[in-house]
Task: structure prediction
Amino acid sequence: MDKGSNKFVVVFQTAVCVVLAILLAGAYNGLSESIAANQEFDKQRNILKAVGLWNPAEEAGKPRKELEDLFKNRMRSEILEVKRGEVDVEVKRAGVVSTEKVVKVLDVVKTDHDIKDFANLMREEGKKPAAERKEYVPFYVRVDDKGADEAYCIPISGYGLWSTLYGFLALQANCRNVVGITFYDHKETPGLGGEVDNPSWQAQWVDKCVRGDDGMLTGVNVKKGGAAPDDPHAVDGLSGATITGDGVTRFVMSDLQTYEPYFKKLLNG
Result:
């Protein structure tokens, strides 16, 4: 084949692309277990941060083995099943009250599944017809040296402006006050919505209350223009990132509502 012909150039470029694709696929497959382990460790670090067992500002250099042992010894991981169903809800529009069917969480129960099997469990459920799928969620408990519950941690996620944000929210054992919040994955604008990663902003969440005086969930409001110093249910909004802040307010409340039946069981012993 003439090396100066267009045909040679096309064949050569195709061969190079195929070889590189094979090499990249082989490298990814060879590193897949390591990548998965690193992702799991990153989640564990964020959980430890949320529940107050690890402060990266003061313990950034803490060895991985120590953090993994800390998670193993001071955290209990569970898989819960969320059961949803339709309920009748009265809705008022233009002065007219009507009854509509709304899907709500009816119950949340503990399962015997091991947290290590969570990814496989979700994959298997995803293969089933939508009507037959079960909904599972992880739940993390900070325990003291004697195994007593000290705090509860749930995953939180939802849309901001440009991306889905993923993180964790921890509550005290009273299921009212926030221990901490953290985010480990998002693509919000640095300096704007990306300020959800700012330790100073996250620190505002500590001790905020997610319930009203009547015990009902209120969530925490990311308030545009700033929260009043004595408001137990609000934190300052993110400057120039109102949509991201509104998203955080919305999905934190939604995720709290998902776990609410289980929180009630814990509170009732």
Notes: The chain has one domain: 56-267.
